[in-house]
Inverse folding.
């Protein structure tokens, strides 16, 4: 097979592989979304907690816990 | 003690290096990769910073990352759960990028730099912003206000810094309160940026530039989106916004019901006051009316933003009792609200980090580690912004020769300045490339395009023929600090610290407006850069020379780039940009290139060079 054609074929295979991988990832992530976040969302609603702030709040300011710089900087979360 | 600060994986990645508390180098990755707002791992900026300090990665004592990835991930998951089932698309997109790279940032940094994971620190996003402002300020005590789109959960914080230059003095920066996602000034402003047809995280300046063409007649409607608590905090009416569940859209139909159909990206913006330049297609009444509506909406969101920022600053003042204010976060780049803060907030002094956006977080994280963790005394006040790469005379000359340019070299600085002033007086537009490139989004006289501010037509010329951008965009002046008061109304006797970094907008004095039309916006305002004794001496010398020649102590200064491109770094990039635009002359180091004296070799060089420079190719020699 001439070099240009085999290069084209390889590029096509790679693009197809990417498309399949992306489709699979979308499929799996959609399943995770409905199976995991659906119940999590329901639990959030049942708990009455609004992560975006209570509608009847008197202020938008939230106090921040004082941090120990050494502990603070070690943690990723 | 060597600390490398890093920010990446959102937008505007950057690196900054502290050696024993002194800032050695700081740079955004986009200047090297040539990819605007490059958000990838800043490999080239890191290499530059280490090279500048003569260090190897193993010489680093700490690497400080500018935010907490796990907290941010938690916020995204919680947000998706709270907006279920509308957030499926956002969830898929976020998970791909988070599971693909962002969650493993610690291992990635350790691998890229070859440092042990124990050396890698994580500083909260707003604490990084706060540290970038406070520990660069000249204050021992200050209120701190940070405002942006969102970090981990916080969208704004207020707090207080106390720090000392003395050995053994206490170094403390405490953010006591925060406003939380999705209630955010930055996200509110970005929703309007998208509505007005501009790119989010890039077009916010354009909204600010558009606002003076309008009247805030939609302010009541904007306030319907924002409920204030009377203490500087607020809630957004979330029904009108989509950013919390949609990766593509910022606003909903509820939003459109208030303001009408959005502006189509790329359509021309023309009102009765904007210039048409050489566009022969005169606008009809309906186009004018439609665009006036957009200008009025821009004016309205700008007015609301100013009020919100003023109220937050008042709260910071009330809680801290400090007479000084430090600010950072993307909203701190809103120079119009900053100007109002200077005039109206009651703070005696205000310092704003010149790289107030997320790039600046790299420096803030490193500074926080140095001062708060190690309790080291302060060594650094940021009085200038040139912390990037520079080029020697030899490199510059070689670059120009390689491009086939014929140029004149001036060994004597006074003669170089004389030549540059002469060019400006002749109405020439001059590319000005000197020293180290600037830290932050503003060109402050090291990678600038400069011109005579007295010319009525200069604004159109530079917008259309030089930068190929929209004719409504304003230009800023660089003014000698000692002359600033003669031209601009600061509302107070002193010139603010933040004006050194072109971060505040002020009215041009009535009697001066006709004298400097190219840098006077349609509402009579101007985003002033005050050039004082701390500024690069050559740039000060240039403006002084222009003043001696013309009686006007300021020049028009805009960033040395074309629309959509990062500001130039190397002399070759400067030359290519010069060749691609209508600039008349280029002063790069001690060399002067004039377009009308160039030979054809340079034109053919330009074509081949440009085609070889796709973003991310290594342009640094
Ligand atoms: Fe930020």
């Amino acid at each position: 097979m001439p070099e240009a054609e085999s290069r084209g074929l390889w590029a096509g295979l790679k693009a197809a592989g990417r498309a399949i991988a992306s489709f699979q990832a979308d499929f799996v992530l959609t399943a995770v979304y409905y199976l995991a976040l659906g119940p999590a969302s329901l639990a959030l609603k049942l708990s009455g907690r609004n992560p975006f702030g209570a509608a009847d709040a008197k202020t938008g300011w939230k106090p921040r816990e004082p941090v120990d710089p050494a502990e603070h900087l070690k943690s990723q979360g | 003690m060597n600390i490398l600060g890093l920010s990446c994986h959102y937008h505007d990645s950057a690196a900054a290096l502290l050696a024993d508390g002194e800032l050695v180098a700081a740079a955004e990755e986009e200047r090297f990769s040539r990819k605007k707002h490059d958000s990838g791992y800043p490999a080239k900026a890191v290499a530059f910073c280490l090279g500048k300090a003569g260090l190897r990665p193993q010489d680093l004592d700490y690497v400080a990352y500018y935010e907490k990835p796990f907290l941010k991930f938690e916020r995204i998951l919680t947000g998706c759960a709270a907006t279920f089932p509308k957030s499926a698309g956002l969830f898929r997109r976020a998970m791909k990028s988070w599971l693909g790279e962002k969650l493993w940032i610690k291992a990635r940094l350790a691998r890229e730099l070859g440092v042990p994971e124990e050396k890698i620190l994580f500083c909260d996003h707003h604490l990084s912003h706060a540290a970038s402002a406070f520990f660069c300020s000249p204050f021992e005590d200050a209120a701190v206000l940070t405002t942006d789109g969102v970090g981990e959960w916080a969208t704004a914080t207020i707090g207080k810094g106390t720090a000392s230059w003395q050995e053994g003095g206490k170094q403390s920066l405490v953010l006591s309160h925060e406003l939380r996602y999705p209630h955010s000034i930055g996200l509110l402003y970005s929703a309007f940026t998208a509505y007005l047809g501009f790119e989010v995280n890039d077009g916010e300046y354009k909204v600010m530039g558009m606002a003076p063409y309008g009247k805030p007649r939609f302010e009541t409607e904007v306030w319907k989106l924002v409920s204030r608590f009377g203490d500087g905090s607020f809630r957004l009416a979330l029904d009108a916004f989509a950013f919390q569940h949609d990766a593509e859209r910022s606003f909903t139909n509820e939003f459109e019901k208030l303001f009408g159909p959005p502006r189509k990206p790329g359509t021309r913006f023309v009102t009765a006051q904007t210039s048409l330049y050489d566009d022969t297609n005169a606008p009809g009444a309906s186009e004018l009316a439609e665009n006036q509506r957009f200008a009025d909406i821009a004016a309205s969101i700008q007015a609301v933003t100013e009020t919100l920022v003023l109220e937050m600053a008042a709260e910071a003042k009330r809680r801290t009792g400090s007479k000084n204010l430090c600010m950072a976060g993307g909203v701190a780049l809103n120079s119009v609200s900053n100007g109002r803060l200077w005039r109206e907030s009651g703070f005696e002094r205000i310092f704003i980090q010149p790289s107030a956006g997320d790039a600046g977080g790299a420096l803030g994280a490193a500074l926080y580690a140095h001062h708060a963790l190690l309790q080291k005394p302060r060594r650094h006040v940021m009085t200038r912004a040139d912390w990037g790469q520079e080029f020697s005379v030899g490199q510059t000359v070689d670059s120009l020769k390689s491009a086939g340019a014929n140029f004149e070299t001036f060994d004597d600085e006074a003669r170089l300045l004389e030549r540059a002033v002469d060019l400006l007086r002749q109405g020439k537009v001059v590319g000005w490339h000197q020293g180290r490139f600037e830290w932050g989004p503003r060109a402050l006289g090291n990678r600038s395009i400069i011109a005579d501010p007295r010319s009525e037509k200069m604004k159109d010329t530079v917008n259309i023929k030089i930068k190929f951008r929209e004719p409504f965009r304003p230009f800023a002046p660089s003014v000698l600090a000692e002359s600033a008061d003669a031209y601009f109304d600061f509302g107070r006797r002193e010139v603010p610290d933040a004006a050194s970094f072109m971060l505040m907008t002020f009215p041009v004095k009535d009697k001066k407006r006709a004298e400097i039309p190219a840098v006077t916006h349609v509402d009579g305002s101007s985003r002033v850069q005050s050039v004082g004794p701390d500024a690069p001496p050559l740039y000060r010398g240039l403006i002084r020379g222009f003043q001696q020649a013309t009686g006007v102590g300021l020049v028009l200064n805009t960033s040395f780039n074309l629309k959509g491109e990062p500001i130039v770094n190397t002399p070759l990039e400067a030359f290519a940009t010069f060749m691609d635009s209508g600039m008349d002359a280029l002063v790069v180091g001690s060399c002067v290139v004039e377009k009308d004296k160039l030979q054809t070799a340079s034109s053919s060089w330009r074509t081949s060079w440009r085609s070889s420079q796709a973003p991310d190719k290594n342009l640094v020699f």
User: Anything to note?
Assistant: Chain B touches chain A through 53 residues (CB under 8 Å). Residues B 125, 129, 148, 151, 329-330, 358 surround fe (ii) ion (CB under 6 Å).
